[in-house]
Write a structure and sequence with these properties.
By secondary structure, this protein is α/β, with parallel strands linked by helices. It has six helices and 18 strands. The chain binds fe (ii) ion (2 copies).
Length: 275
Protein backbone atom coordinates (compact mmCIF):
# COMPACT_ATOMS: atom_id res chain seq x y z
CA UNK A 1 0.00 0.00 0.00
CA UNK A 2 1.00 3.59 -0.37
CA UNK A 3 -0.13 6.59 1.66
CA UNK A 4 0.31 10.17 0.43
CA UNK A 5 -0.38 12.89 3.01
CA UNK A 6 -2.18 15.78 1.29
CA UNK A 7 -3.17 17.76 4.39
CA UNK A 8 -1.84 17.77 7.93
CA UNK A 9 -0.92 20.15 10.75
CA UNK A 10 2.77 19.81 9.92
CA UNK A 11 4.46 19.59 6.54
CA UNK A 12 7.69 18.58 4.88
CA UNK A 13 9.67 21.51 3.38
CA UNK A 14 7.96 22.90 0.28
CA UNK A 15 4.44 21.84 1.28
CA UNK A 16 1.62 23.73 2.98
CA UNK A 17 0.16 22.80 6.38
CA UNK A 18 -3.18 23.49 8.05
CA UNK A 19 -5.14 22.13 11.00
CA UNK A 20 -6.63 19.25 9.05
CA UNK A 21 -6.18 15.76 7.67
CA UNK A 22 -6.34 14.28 4.19
CA UNK A 23 -4.71 11.08 2.99
CA UNK A 24 -4.60 9.63 -0.52
CA UNK A 25 -4.37 5.86 -0.23
CA UNK A 26 -3.51 3.27 -2.88
CA UNK A 27 -4.30 -0.24 -1.63
CA UNK A 28 -6.04 -3.45 -2.70
CA UNK A 29 -6.09 -2.24 -6.31
CA UNK A 30 -8.08 0.89 -5.46
CA UNK A 31 -7.37 4.56 -4.78
CA UNK A 32 -9.28 6.76 -2.38
CA UNK A 33 -9.20 9.83 -0.20
CA UNK A 34 -9.49 9.41 3.54
CA UNK A 35 -10.74 12.88 4.60
CA UNK A 36 -10.17 16.04 2.62
CA UNK A 37 -8.45 18.49 5.00
CA UNK A 38 -9.70 21.93 5.99
CA UNK A 39 -9.43 23.71 2.65
CA UNK A 40 -8.42 23.20 -0.95
CA UNK A 41 -4.81 22.89 0.26
CA UNK A 42 -5.01 19.15 -0.46
CA UNK A 43 -5.22 19.87 -4.20
CA UNK A 44 -2.22 22.23 -4.04
CA UNK A 45 -0.06 19.78 -2.08
CA UNK A 46 -1.20 16.93 -4.34
CA UNK A 47 -0.08 18.82 -7.43
CA UNK A 48 3.36 19.40 -5.91
CA UNK A 49 3.57 15.70 -5.10
CA UNK A 50 2.43 14.56 -8.54
CA UNK A 51 -0.59 12.86 -6.96
CA UNK A 52 -3.95 13.23 -8.71
CA UNK A 53 -6.93 13.15 -6.29
CA UNK A 54 -9.05 13.05 -9.46
CA UNK A 55 -8.10 9.37 -9.83
CA UNK A 56 -9.81 8.45 -6.52
CA UNK A 57 -12.49 5.76 -6.76
CA UNK A 58 -14.25 7.02 -3.63
CA UNK A 59 -13.92 9.31 -0.63
CA UNK A 60 -14.24 8.29 3.01
CA UNK A 61 -15.02 10.92 5.65
CA UNK A 62 -14.00 9.96 9.18
CA UNK A 63 -16.37 12.38 10.91
CA UNK A 64 -18.32 15.58 10.43
CA UNK A 65 -15.75 18.23 11.31
CA UNK A 66 -14.65 20.90 8.87
CA UNK A 67 -10.92 20.16 9.31
CA UNK A 68 -11.61 16.75 7.70
CA UNK A 69 -14.13 17.77 5.07
CA UNK A 70 -13.30 21.36 4.04
CA UNK A 71 -11.60 20.40 0.78
CA UNK A 72 -14.29 17.98 -0.37
CA UNK A 73 -15.94 20.25 -2.95
CA UNK A 74 -12.56 21.11 -4.48
CA UNK A 75 -12.35 17.40 -5.34
CA UNK A 76 -16.02 16.72 -6.15
CA UNK A 77 -16.24 19.58 -8.63
CA UNK A 78 -13.72 17.62 -10.74
CA UNK A 79 -14.87 14.04 -10.15
CA UNK A 80 -18.18 12.50 -9.19
CA UNK A 81 -17.39 9.65 -6.81
CA UNK A 82 -19.25 8.22 -3.82
CA UNK A 83 -18.57 9.77 -0.42
CA UNK A 84 -19.04 7.44 2.54
CA UNK A 85 -19.62 9.03 5.96
CA UNK A 86 -21.20 7.85 9.19
CA UNK A 87 -24.86 8.58 9.83
CA UNK A 88 -25.05 12.01 11.43
CA UNK A 89 -21.77 13.30 10.00
CA UNK A 90 -23.62 16.11 8.24
CA UNK A 91 -25.56 17.23 11.30
CA UNK A 92 -24.55 20.59 12.76
CA UNK A 93 -21.32 20.42 14.76
CA UNK A 94 -19.99 23.20 16.98
CA UNK A 95 -16.95 23.87 19.13
CA UNK A 96 -17.08 25.89 22.36
CA UNK A 97 -14.27 28.47 22.35
CA UNK A 98 -13.37 31.45 24.53
CA UNK A 99 -15.08 33.61 21.89
CA UNK A 100 -18.27 31.54 21.89
CA UNK A 101 -19.56 28.73 19.71
CA UNK A 102 -17.82 28.16 16.39
CA UNK A 103 -19.53 26.19 13.64
CA UNK A 104 -17.25 23.34 12.53
CA UNK A 105 -19.88 21.40 10.55
CA UNK A 106 -19.01 19.39 7.46
CA UNK A 107 -20.61 21.01 4.42
CA UNK A 108 -20.78 20.02 0.76
CA UNK A 109 -22.70 21.20 -2.27
CA UNK A 110 -22.72 17.58 -3.49
CA UNK A 111 -24.96 15.90 -0.89
CA UNK A 112 -26.34 13.62 -3.62
CA UNK A 113 -22.94 11.88 -3.69
CA UNK A 114 -22.90 11.30 0.07
CA UNK A 115 -23.94 7.94 1.46
CA UNK A 116 -24.44 8.15 5.23
CA UNK A 117 -23.75 4.67 6.57
CA UNK A 118 -25.28 3.16 9.67
CA UNK A 119 -23.04 0.94 11.81
CA UNK A 120 -20.23 -0.79 9.94
CA UNK A 121 -20.09 -0.61 6.16
CA UNK A 122 -18.14 -2.57 3.57
CA UNK A 123 -16.75 -0.71 0.57
CA UNK A 124 -15.99 -2.93 -2.40
CA UNK A 125 -12.34 -3.86 -2.65
CA UNK A 126 -12.12 -5.11 0.91
CA UNK A 127 -12.46 -1.93 2.98
CA UNK A 128 -14.50 -1.79 6.17
CA UNK A 129 -15.73 1.43 7.73
CA UNK A 130 -16.31 0.64 11.39
CA UNK A 131 -17.80 2.52 14.29
CA UNK A 132 -16.51 2.14 17.82
CA UNK A 133 -19.45 1.37 20.09
CA UNK A 134 -17.60 0.13 23.19
CA UNK A 135 -15.53 2.66 25.13
CA UNK A 136 -13.75 0.93 28.00
CA UNK A 137 -10.82 3.34 27.78
CA UNK A 138 -11.19 7.11 28.23
CA UNK A 139 -12.10 9.33 25.29
CA UNK A 140 -10.11 12.53 24.60
CA UNK A 141 -10.93 15.10 27.34
CA UNK A 142 -11.14 17.83 24.67
CA UNK A 143 -14.35 16.16 23.39
CA UNK A 144 -16.10 18.07 26.19
CA UNK A 145 -16.02 21.24 24.08
CA UNK A 146 -17.50 19.58 21.01
CA UNK A 147 -21.23 19.76 20.50
CA UNK A 148 -23.81 18.60 18.01
CA UNK A 149 -27.35 19.76 17.33
CA UNK A 150 -30.16 17.22 17.71
CA UNK A 151 -33.77 18.27 17.20
CA UNK A 152 -32.74 21.91 17.56
CA UNK A 153 -30.98 21.31 20.89
CA UNK A 154 -27.22 21.49 21.42
CA UNK A 155 -25.89 18.36 23.12
CA UNK A 156 -22.35 17.03 23.75
CA UNK A 157 -21.21 15.10 20.69
CA UNK A 158 -20.98 11.37 21.45
CA UNK A 159 -19.18 10.77 18.12
CA UNK A 160 -21.35 7.79 17.24
CA UNK A 161 -21.06 9.13 13.68
CA UNK A 162 -17.26 8.64 13.65
CA UNK A 163 -16.04 5.88 11.34
CA UNK A 164 -12.57 4.38 11.09
CA UNK A 165 -11.30 2.34 8.17
CA UNK A 166 -9.81 -1.12 8.12
CA UNK A 167 -8.37 -3.20 5.29
CA UNK A 168 -5.90 -6.00 4.70
CA UNK A 169 -3.52 -6.21 1.78
CA UNK A 170 -1.23 -9.24 1.41
CA UNK A 171 -1.42 -9.97 5.13
CA UNK A 172 -0.83 -6.35 6.16
CA UNK A 173 -3.69 -5.22 8.40
CA UNK A 174 -4.16 -1.44 8.33
CA UNK A 175 -6.41 0.79 10.46
CA UNK A 176 -6.91 4.49 9.69
CA UNK A 177 -8.58 6.96 12.03
CA UNK A 178 -9.32 10.65 11.49
CA UNK A 179 -9.31 12.14 14.97
CA UNK A 180 -9.99 9.12 17.24
CA UNK A 181 -12.66 11.06 19.12
CA UNK A 182 -14.00 7.76 20.51
CA UNK A 183 -10.53 7.08 21.96
CA UNK A 184 -7.63 5.50 20.07
CA UNK A 185 -7.37 2.52 22.46
CA UNK A 186 -11.11 1.85 22.08
CA UNK A 187 -10.69 1.94 18.30
CA UNK A 188 -7.75 -0.48 18.54
CA UNK A 189 -9.90 -2.77 20.76
CA UNK A 190 -12.70 -2.70 18.17
CA UNK A 191 -10.29 -3.46 15.28
CA UNK A 192 -8.96 -6.42 17.30
CA UNK A 193 -12.50 -7.66 17.96
CA UNK A 194 -13.26 -7.52 14.23
CA UNK A 195 -10.01 -9.07 12.99
CA UNK A 196 -8.96 -11.28 15.91
CA UNK A 197 -5.53 -9.69 15.97
CA UNK A 198 -3.71 -6.40 16.41
CA UNK A 199 -3.33 -4.31 13.23
CA UNK A 200 0.13 -4.05 11.67
CA UNK A 201 -0.23 -0.36 10.84
CA UNK A 202 -2.17 2.38 12.62
CA UNK A 203 -2.51 5.71 10.81
CA UNK A 204 -4.13 9.05 11.62
CA UNK A 205 -4.88 11.73 14.19
CA UNK A 206 -5.00 10.27 17.70
CA UNK A 207 -6.00 13.24 19.89
CA UNK A 208 -3.51 12.65 22.69
CA UNK A 209 -3.09 16.35 23.53
CA UNK A 210 -5.58 18.97 24.60
CA UNK A 211 -5.25 21.45 21.70
CA UNK A 212 -5.84 24.40 24.04
CA UNK A 213 -3.62 23.32 26.89
CA UNK A 214 -0.28 21.80 27.61
CA UNK A 215 -1.74 18.56 28.95
CA UNK A 216 -1.05 15.41 27.04
CA UNK A 217 -1.81 11.74 27.46
CA UNK A 218 1.59 10.06 27.73
CA UNK A 219 0.07 6.92 29.27
CA UNK A 220 -2.05 6.26 26.18
CA UNK A 221 0.92 6.99 23.89
CA UNK A 222 3.00 4.43 25.82
CA UNK A 223 0.17 1.88 25.83
CA UNK A 224 -0.28 2.29 22.07
CA UNK A 225 3.42 1.53 21.50
CA UNK A 226 3.19 -1.54 23.74
CA UNK A 227 0.07 -2.87 22.05
CA UNK A 228 1.31 -2.25 18.50
CA UNK A 229 4.27 -4.54 19.26
CA UNK A 230 6.32 -4.92 16.07
CA UNK A 231 3.79 -2.94 14.03
CA UNK A 232 4.05 0.66 13.00
CA UNK A 233 2.29 3.95 13.71
CA UNK A 234 1.96 6.92 11.35
CA UNK A 235 0.49 9.77 13.42
CA UNK A 236 0.02 13.52 13.33
CA UNK A 237 -2.81 16.06 12.98
CA UNK A 238 -4.38 16.23 16.50
CA UNK A 239 -1.98 13.70 18.06
CA UNK A 240 0.27 16.35 19.68
CA UNK A 241 4.03 16.87 19.72
CA UNK A 242 4.70 15.43 23.21
CA UNK A 243 2.95 12.10 22.53
CA UNK A 244 4.66 11.98 19.11
CA UNK A 245 8.06 12.32 20.86
CA UNK A 246 7.17 9.50 23.24
CA UNK A 247 6.16 7.21 20.36
CA UNK A 248 9.25 8.18 18.31
CA UNK A 249 11.51 7.31 21.27
CA UNK A 250 9.76 4.01 21.93
CA UNK A 251 9.26 2.84 18.34
CA UNK A 252 12.23 4.30 16.47
CA UNK A 253 11.78 3.98 12.72
CA UNK A 254 8.52 2.09 13.24
CA UNK A 255 7.00 5.49 14.02
CA UNK A 256 6.49 7.92 11.13
CA UNK A 257 5.34 11.52 11.45
CA UNK A 258 2.26 12.26 9.42
CA UNK A 259 3.54 15.38 7.59
CA UNK A 260 1.90 16.88 4.50
CA UNK A 261 4.02 15.96 1.49
CA UNK A 262 4.93 12.53 2.89
CA UNK A 263 4.65 9.62 0.45
CA UNK A 264 5.09 6.33 2.25
CA UNK A 265 4.95 2.83 0.81
CA UNK A 266 4.48 -0.14 3.11
CA UNK A 267 5.23 -3.66 2.01
CA UNK A 268 3.14 -6.52 3.30
CA UNK A 269 4.25 -8.67 6.24
CA UNK A 270 4.58 -11.65 3.86
CA UNK A 271 7.26 -9.70 1.98
CA UNK A 272 10.68 -10.83 3.30
CA UNK A 273 11.94 -7.23 3.13
CA UNK A 274 9.05 -5.97 5.26
CA UNK A 275 10.85 -5.80 8.61
FE1 LIG B 1 -12.51 16.16 14.94
FE1 LIG C 1 -9.46 16.77 13.41
Amino acid sequence: MKVSVLSADTALPGFGSEHGLSLFIEACGRRFLFDTGKSQLLTENAERMGVDPGTADFIVLSHGHSDHSGGIDAVLQKIRVPVYAGKGAFERHLSKTADGLVDISAVTGYRDLVEEVDGSHEISGGFLQFSCDVTEHPQPPSNIRLMTERDGVLVPDDFCHERNLLFEEDGLLVVITGCAHRGILNILDEAERICGRTPDVLIGGMHLTDPRGSEFDGDTAGELCRRMGDGMIIAGHCTGEAPISIMQDRMGDRFVRLDAGLEYGIRSSSDPAYR
